[in-house]
Amino acid sequence: MRIAIDAMGGDCGPQVMVDGAVRAANDFGYEIALVGDNDVICLELEKYRWSKELITVHHASQVVGMEEQPAQAVRRKRGSSINVAVNLVKEGRCEALVTAGNTGAAVASATLILGLLPGVKRPGIAIVFPTLYGISLLIDVGANIDPRPEHLLQYAIMGNIYVKYILRKQNPSISLLNIGKEESKGTELLRETYKLLTDSGLNFIGNVEGRDVFSGRSDCIICGGFIGNVVLKVLESIAETTTAFFRRELEKSILTRLGAWFCRPAFLALQKGTDYSECGGAPLLGVDGICIIAHGGSTAKAIRNAIKVAGGFVNYKVNQRIAGEIGKWERRGLLKLSA
Amino acid sequence: MRIAIDAMGGDCGPQVMVDGAVRAANDFGYEIALVGDNDVICLELEKYRWSKELITVHHASQVVGMEEQPAQAVRRKRGSSINVAVNLVKEGRCEALVTAGNTGAAVASATLILGLLPGVKRPGIAIVFPTLYGISLLIDVGANIDPRPEHLLQYAIMGNIYVKYILRKQNPSISLLNIGKEESKGTELLRETYKLLTDSGLNFIGNVEGRDVFSGRSDCIICGGFIGNVVLKVLESIAETTTAFFRRELEKSILTRLGAWFCRPAFLALQKGTDYSECGGAPLLGVDGICIIAHGGSTAKAIRNAIKVAGGFVNYKVNQRIAGEIGKWERRGLLKLSA
User: Fold this and answer.
1) pLDDT of residue B133
2) Distance (Å, whole) CA B146 – CA B179
3) CB–CB of A211 and B237 under 8 A?
4) Which residue among A258, A265, B58, B158 has its CA within the 20 to 30 Å range from the CA of A189?
5) Range list of H helices, chain B
6) Nearest-CA neighbor of A98 among A291, A277, A280, A289?
7) CB of A141 within 8 A of CB of B211?
């Protein structure tokens, strides 16, 4: 197992990426190809104990910045770390890649270079997030902001496999994010998708509303990339906002400060329970190769966990299973894939 | 000032609506017309001390249920409490109405019977919600799930007036809910709207992302009704979810239970800070009459506050100001209102 790491991506760049990669190599015994500026990466590597058998460096002369226009940057900067990492997968020299860089660039690079799995019409980013009762999957959170019903059905098929093999839940419950429970609710897109999902043979439990996202009612929530991205960012901000609010309130008196000290375990549990680094990265499902996208603000632990997810994808043959399922659907003629 | 109350709406029906109405009459001296089943309302009224000069009952023989298909129900049940209440406003016998019933029915009834303010193309539901720093406005949260750029511009014009006169903030900052800060982000709808808002003369601060919703960065956030509805419901579920999570964690040991007791003021502050009943109801902006929609799960206090908001609309002539602003825009020819 050999995994390529875009070592230049993320808000903190090589510092965090190299740290996370070393942890993953040590913890899981995976081979790691660190992709980026040779000198910078070697300087970072000096801080750690690592095995030359497990970690190698692949030079890349360019970087796609976090704020760059993705599609353009990927085409112009052919030697960028994300492109070089994706190419290592394309050429079969690595089995997966992990990046915390510009998400749009990762989607563009992986889609252009790796292409899509046979039958898949659009890739989708799937994110696991903590709920009151365990973790759930939300797909898509930004790869496809103008989806068609068939795309959402394919997300459900891919999400189902992800939950089954990576999150290890049998018969995952699939739901559609909407503004009401009834089949008639929402946009034309969602009403069409509802029908497709009902006939899909998946464990489709119907529409869920915004208030159900956090409840853990559904193992896998399907939505378009625009709404998914907004909801994801709202969810991400909750822990931060709640903590900031509590801190302000708890510092108001000596008694509440004392109380806060006693309550520490509960606060730590909330922090841990809503910590995205616990969940690892978000796979770009549907591309013909394994591409795990980590949060730009990832810690070294989050990168380590994203690499673990990449390893899980390889071990459980997730992409082969997706291609198999999508192929079955195509043969059954149930997917009217017109574009 | 006389305000019509749909006394049959809401999850708890007349029990809560009558309680809230009596509180508003006593606290603000408003005249109240309670609309619904005469016998049921009179029975409820017996529980309170109230003035016959302030509170009257208007019989309505039908009720639109919370789960009924809105447009159909409003047309079939002509004598429903929501229709009777809206008609009291139409006929000038009341100056505003408050309902906690079926939101879709309220939108349909108000739009059909009252019509729209001159120049307004679509009504929008505006909701105030608590953030880290004061309260913000989100519009639209469900009246219009397939908006056009001009509709969103009109929401900004109406939201601006609401924040200025009801929330009493000078020069409100207006933003557009999107998946990135850059003008080029998001759907065609949002890119078009971005241009209209930039040229609008409003204090448009650009796009905000999901993570900014709760931060209080913007006084008024503009979005389509689908995304607004999902975000609203996610926000509503946060207090509940966080509280449930903390309760579970804090009950794990005697020390954390003791700590929780000391921290009580902070927990109560969180509850109050995220309590929608503090904010009152959501106005349906753009209709030719004042219609305040309260949450189905409203408490009596929330109903009282929704009635207070209705009073504010009357006192500050919000609808006249909206009609004036929209009129100015039309005359300037800046609104290409084609449909």
Assistant:
1) 79
2) 18
3) yes
4) B158
5) 14-28, 38-45, 70-76, 81-90, 103-114, 149-165, 188-198, 225-250, 254-273, 276-279, 300-315, 318-332
6) A291
7) no
CB contact at 8 A, B177 and B141: no
Boundaries of domain holding B93: 1-120+286-317
CB contact (8 A) between residue A230 and residue B246: no
In a domain? residue B75: yes
The ipTM (two decimal places) reads 0.87
Which of B132, B186, B252 comes nearest A241 by C-beta?
Answer: B132
Tens of pLDDT, residue by residue over B22-66, are 999 999 999 999 999 999 999 999 999 999 999 999 999 999 998
Nearest chain A residue to B207 by CA distance is A230
Q: Are residues B15 and B138 in the same domain?
A: no
Both B209 and B271 in one domain: the answer is yes
Contacts of A252 in chain B (CB under 8 A): 265-266
Say what the pLDDT of residue B339 is: 42
End-to-end CA distance of chain A: 35
Give the closest of A145, A249, A256 to B187, CB-based. A145
- Mean pLDDT lowest for which of A119-133, A279-293, B266-280? B266-280
Subunit contact A69:B184, Cβ cutoff 8 A: yes
Q: Note whether B137 and B271 are same-domain residues.
A: yes
pTM to 2 decimals?
0.89
Q: Which of A146, A244, A270 sits opposite B245 (nearest CB)?
A: A270
Residue A233, amino acid? K
Q: How far is CA B218 from CA B148, B149, B171, in A?
A: 22, 20, 11
Is B329 part of a structural domain of the chain?
Answer: no
Same domain membership, residue B220 and residue B153:
yes
Which residues from chain A sit within 8 angstroms of residue B67, using beta carbons? 182
Residue B89 has pLDDT above 60, yes or no: yes
Distance between CA atoms of residues B87 and B67, nearest Å: 23
Q: Do A260 and B266 touch (CB under 8 A)?
A: yes
Contacts of A210 in chain B (CB under 8 A): 229-237
Among A145, A244, A246, beta carbon nearest to B186:
A145
| Residues A210, B187: C-beta atoms closer than 8 Å | no
Instruction: Tell me: do A91 and A201 sit in the same domain.
Output: no
Q: Please tell me which residue, B247 or B115, carries the higher pLDDT value.
A: B115
Half-sphere exposure of B210 (CA within 13 A, CB side): 25
Q: Nearest CA to CA, how far is B267 from chain A (Å)? A: 8
The pair of structure tokens assigned to B93 is 């016998």
Read off the tokens for B301. 């206090």
